[in-house]
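We were asked to recover a plausible sequence for a given structure. The inputs and outputs are reproduced exactly as logged, with field labels preserved.

PROBLEM: sequence recovery
POSITIONS: 390
GIVEN STRUCTURE:
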């Protein structure tokens, strides 16, 4: 049989900070190195190679270089689009990679409206039949997946590549997901979309190639993928490959006095070795003395830099200030919003206050009958942009 790599959720171009974007690409390069050294039969990429359907040219140039290395090593790449690099028009830069001969998009679907059925045709390579269906925005692929059947390939090892949410992976969390029992039978389900290391029978999520945000860096530390060996006597054997690019050191610091917060944070940073590491600082608490702006983040960044850290990321989502109650005399329940805005504007003068009523009105727009969530969201964004004059 075969040995292959199952990679997903690379998200090239996802990080906005250049040092983190560099690490993301270095992690992908490490995955390619491992695939070449392991002398694999092929590589699967189960969606979200790019963070968007139209990535920057520099990202494309570096990506082409890595795919060329795989091609030169005679290792074919089979992929599908994910929810990030999928385009409703069907045209993405995955097509450019494919036309250059670097990969094969295995999505090959026939839509039969009369039967309300979608038939997938396989891409056959050696003794393997690879089927694929792309991820879409807002989980719209799930309703399609319930209608899918395979154009059968008797006697071949069947792989189904999906970029979606599987019911067995979310458990009791109230998320729209595809039921495993509704999917056509396959020998291996190469999943992507959820950034988790998860296995249920032959359904596998390999995790992202590199964590894609602050929380994922805290939870995962680094990226991973799987090498699947079907040549053994024990059936399929999965080898997890961890892509350890940089160590991550995390700090959780609670503060309530803004004037003393900087010294407290610096004292905590002094306790650990942070040289050449990604430093995560999660600051929480309710500020009772001073304001968040009193925390000297520039001084903290300089301290971390002088200690030789690779990069600093901070999270202040759970850091709040005591709310100041506004004394509003409500004369009528019909104009409570208007009166609230008036009182707020008097206490906090700003040109922005003039457009608050327009923004509130826009946010009361309702979804039209038959309008898709994605279309409705885009309509809200466009209306908001007009008000903000973006």
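RECOVERED SEQUENCE:
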């Amino acid at each position: 049989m075969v040995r292959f790599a199952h990679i997903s959720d690379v998200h090239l171009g996802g990080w906005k900070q250049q040092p983190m974007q560099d690490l993301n690409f270095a992690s992908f390069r490490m995955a390619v190195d491992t695939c070449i050294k392991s002398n694999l039969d092929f590589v699967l990429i189960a969606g979200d190679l790019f963070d968007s359907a139209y990535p920057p040219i520099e990202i494309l140039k570096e990506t082409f270089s890595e795919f060329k290395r795989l091609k030169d090593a005679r290792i074919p790449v089979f992929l599908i689009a994910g929810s990030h690099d999928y385009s409703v028009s069907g045209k993405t830069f995955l097509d450019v990679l494919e036309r250059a001969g670097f990969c094969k998009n295995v999505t090959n679907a026939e839509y039969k409206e009369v039967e309300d059925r979608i038939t997938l045709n396989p891409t056959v390579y050696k003794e393997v039949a690879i089927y694929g269906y792309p991820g879409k925005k807002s989980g719209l692929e799930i309703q399609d997946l319930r209608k899918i059947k395979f154009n059968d390939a008797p006697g071949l090892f069947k792989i189904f590549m999906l970029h979606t949410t599987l019911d067995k992976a979310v458990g009791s969390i109230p998320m729209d997901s595809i039921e495993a029992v509704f999917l056509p039978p396959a020998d291996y389900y190469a999943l992507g979309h959820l950034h988790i290391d998860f296995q249920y029978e032959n359904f596998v999520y390999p995790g992202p190639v590199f964590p894609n945000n602050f929380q994922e860096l805290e939870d995962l530390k680094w990226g991973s993928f799987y090498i699947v060996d079907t040549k053994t006597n024990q059936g399929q054997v999965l080898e997890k490959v961890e892509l350890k690019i940089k160590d991550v050191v995390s700090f959780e610091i609670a503060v309530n006095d803004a004037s003393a917060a900087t010294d407290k944070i610096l004292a905590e940073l002094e306790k650990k070795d942070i040289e050449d590491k990604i430093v995560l600082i999660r600051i929480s608490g309710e500020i009772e003395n001073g304001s968040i702006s009193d925390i000297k983040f520039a001084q903290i960044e300089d301290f971390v830099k002088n200690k030789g850290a690779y990069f600093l990321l901070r999270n202040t989502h759970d850091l709040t200030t005591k709310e100041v109650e506004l004394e509003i005399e409500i004369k009528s329940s019909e104009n409570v919003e208007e009166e609230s805005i008036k009182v707020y504007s008097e206490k906090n003068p700003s040109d922005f206050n003039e457009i608050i009523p327009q923004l509130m009105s826009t946010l009361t727009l309702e979804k039209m009958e038959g309008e898709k969530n994605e279309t409705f969201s885009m309509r809200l964004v466009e209306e908001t942009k007009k008000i903000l004059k973006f």
